[in-house]
Amino acid sequence: MRGVPCRPKSEQSTRLRERVMKFPGIQYAVLCIIAVLLVTTTGVEARYAAIVHQAQTRLAAAGHDPGVLDGAMGRNTARAITAYQTEKGLEQTGTLDSATLQSLAIGTDPGLAVADWRTVPDKAEIDALSKPINDPENPFADYRRHAPAAGLDLPGLAILSAMNQSADLFGSRGPEHPRHSKQGLKLLRGCLKTTHFPDHWSDITVHYYCQMSLPRRCYTNALAGKSTRGVKLARTRAYSGCAKGRLADSEPFKWVTKSQPEIFQYLMFAQTHAFKHDQEQSIINAFYGVEDPANRSECKRKRPVRTEDPHDGTHCLVDKVMRRKLVGRGR
User: Fold this and answer.
1) For residue 148, cis peptide bond before it (omega within 30 degrees of 0)
2) Residue 4 pLDDT more than 90?
3) Are 89 and 193 within one domain?
């Protein structure tokens, strides 16, 4: 069994290989497989893209099995794409080229203008959307790890207005803006770069939420169990506790309940892949004043990165490759 080829490339798996060389026979073979799986898992997560996740959802719905809805362009997904292209009479590239994305009704226009693609939902609609959880027929609240991309529209102009309102009030603007404050910008960047890895939140959710330097404390602490004796509250229960003044730091949270409760709930109660990615990016880029999302230097200069974003200036794009996989966990 010592002749089984095992060449893991990462530093972590190289150290593991050095250790398993001490084990004879079957033990070495088993541990070698573990090392290879370590590399494979890391590589898949490094290739994660939300646009692929959305495409996998559409392919599965069209009857072409892409395998696990994991946002990684693996062999199963490539085969599903080719089969779909054959069925639709498209060029069989096996990739998500522009014609295939258009056929799948997935937008990738980096210059998409912000619009109200839907109206702001009222409380009755939000209550209906947030229940039941993990129901395939209710993708808004489907928090499972490999939940499908729901592809829901956003009230874009209303969200952008809400973000501007909170940023102006709490000073979470860039140094060139008249409403900028060092503390506000520091809190914004700290929220986006949190070590807690909010990889179960969509892009628009993270950027919208991080503007609220003061009100968000109540909600964050309730989700983390810091204000509830270690009990991590579900998103809907955390909101209720903060809105009704039952939790710590509820006083600043009153601003949310008075100014934008429906927008907050629509964005915060949704599962990770609820919204259309091109709409998300257009709102975020407009907020930070990014005129050309494909310009890497402008993107780096104007738009701060979240923990999971790539660091090469492509984080303003719809089809960016995330550093960490966005998973459907959470409640």
Assistant:
1) no
2) no
3) no
